[in-house]
Amino acid sequence: MFVGEVIGSLVATVKDPSLQGIKLMLVQPLDDEGQPAGQPLVATDSIGVGVGERAFCILGREAALALPDSFAPVDAGIVGIVDRADKDEEA
């Protein structure tokens, strides 16, 4: 799981049939300080997140479980919108 910033959308006119009607978004993973960490990735969006929002994302097999077809070929999925994140400085 990770938090990322949605930096754009991806349009694919030809894709696997299980992804028809599913939005694809570009997500920049963020570190604990809210700074970019690693390369952006493509994630399915099952909740309707917008560009510029921070999202809660999952990776791996579980990413497909948020979709109507749980056997869709995806590696990353957006499953929540982050309203606020508080970091405990003592941890």
Number of separate helices: 0
Q: How would you characterize the largest beta sheet?
A: 5 strands, mixed, barrel
CATH architecture: Beta Barrel
Instruction: Measure the end-to-end span.
Output: 19 Å
Tell me the structural class. mainly beta
Neighbour order of strands in the largest sheet: 1-2-3-5-4
- Fraction of residues in helices? under 10%
Domain count, please report it.
1
Rg, rounded, reads 13 Å
* CATH class group: Mainly Beta
Which features characterize this protein?
91 residues, mainly beta, 5-stranded mixed barrel, OB fold (Dihydrolipoamide Acetyltransferase, E2P), single chain
Question: Please, could you describe this protein's structure?
Answer:
- This protein is 0% helix and 36% strand.
- The protein has strands at 2-10, 23-29, 41-45, 54-59, 76-81.
- It has a single domain, classed as Beta Barrel (OB fold (Dihydrolipoamide Acetyltransferase, E2P)), CATH 2.40.50.
- By secondary structure, the protein is mainly beta.
- The protein has a five-stranded mixed barrel.
